[in-house]
Amino acid sequence: MGRCGSSHFASDRSLLIGLGLIAVCAGAFAVDSASSVAGSSQRWPPAGLAIPVDHVESSALRDTFGDGRPGHRHEAIDIAAPRGTKVLAVDDGEIVKLFTSVRGGLTVYQFDPQGRLAYYYAHLDRYAETVHEGMTVHRCDLIGYVGSTGNAPADAPHLHFATFLLGARKHWWEGTAINPFPALRGSCD
Fold first, then answer.
1. Residue 61: closest CA among 175, 158, 165
2. pLDDT at position 17, please?
3. What CA–CA distance (Å, rounded) separates 57 from 136?
């Protein structure tokens, strides 16, 4: 957990982090820290997520999930960092889509090893040279660099990081947003 390379790393994905109830899908179902994701054996928040921005401590993270934005609710957390700071994979998995959008700018979609969760990294300045769709990544692999592409203010580079539960069809563009803050904040520094 925590920073990449931390000696406090826990690889047991069944380790529970955080307390309380995370409402998902407008109350249709909920995932609490002692239950599984959508009836699977996977727990939320998952243990062992790395902080996705190099040299950022978990204590510096702010929960911006659910904050109001013009015309929508913010379903991610923003992690401010200087432009060009390394963006790292939070978990093992696969890069399923590199995409450029009006709102997110340069983005990366990564699925977790079980194909149940997607991790979304947005507003990147650029991708890491070796990153490509279909690539297997490991926790803390370099995938890109912090920027302000898309609708991010040019003078406020940051990583927009989201986590969502994939639907049955496993589309990279759809799922149920889950606040990543508890999993990231629970990391050891």
1. 158
2. 25
3. 26
